[in-house]
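writing this on my phone so excuse typos. first protein, seq and then structure
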Amino acid sequence: MDLVIKYGGSLLFEDGNIRTSRIDAMCDAVRTLAGEGHAVGIVVGGGATARSYIRGLAPDYGQADKDFVAVMATRMNAMLFISRLSDLAAPYPPQTYDEMVRQLREGRMVVAGGMQPGQSTNAVATLLCEAMGADHLVNATDVDYLYDKDPSRYDDARPLEDATYAELREIVSASGAGAGQYELFDTVAVNNLVRSHIRLHFVNGSDPERIVRLVRGERVGTTVHE
């Protein structure tokens, strides 16, 4: 299987500290998958780091400025993975799509953060899928499933084991997001899934073994498809 793992920034930190043991476990899982012959790409979100920087900006900073700061935070987070996968991964997160493709052509694993203002790391992950020819995107978050509505706001939120692109689009449209707040997914990323027929899997990434089990064919989390 060729796949991209979008690793949510919410998984990286606890009480302001980097969860190094979790990063190590995720990198061990990636090595396991690569050793089994799977081509793996990784895109890392901004999480609390990005949001902290955005909150610290002067009030007159615009959305594009905030997005740019969030992009830089995601690249710092990506370096945490690159440092542990240095024998497999390209030495730096690509800053453009051209750089991403160049790293792939050099036979290196791509570990990316964000690329440009107005583009979420979810969208970057779908672009990496397209560049790799990967037909699976694993969205590793801190919840077990995709829900029909925000479970932190609605007690009657229902977990979904299967969903269609159309259902995902409706859920995303209802959630809304600003700079540094692409917590679920976004419309641009959904459009990319649809055009390239990429299966999306929502998996709780706090235990990376769940991702290994998913790739090996077990039913884990939510699968979004046509």
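second protein below, same order as before
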Amino acid sequence: MLIGVISDTHDRLPTLDRGLQILRDRGVQAVLHPGDVVAPFAAKRLLAWTGPLYITYGNNDGERKGLKSVLPQIQDGPMWVELGGRRILLHHFVDWCPPSEIARADAVVTGHTHEVVNETRDGRLFLNPGECCGWLTGRCTVAVLDTDTLTAEIIEVPQ
């Protein structure tokens, strides 16, 4: 199963739209967003994705009531998602994931740092797709996680 991962979109609508289109073009069946959409107007853009969307709050998601009205499935992490026969731990920041929770996961998907992480440690995938907004690093990225191989591909999003 292919899963799209997009994080730290921070209200940058053009790259959010392009990132979602890339994920659609790659044929992903679900999308994970580990936080920092920021505003409800940007959250509405995520409604363009018609498949399953799993999303947690980030530290910059201050307008929680508005976000919840647009995306009723949004919640504080950690969130457990089972897709493609894999247990995925979804949270905004890896340092907020208790080691006991990490030990139960096949994949740990986070954001927050805006830096790409795509590595396997102790048989578990740690994935941060980087920032889709490009505000901090100047690089806009999303990821496609393959549950069959437990690997991920980082994809550049045009700015």
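The chain is about 20% helix and 30% strand. thats all i got for now
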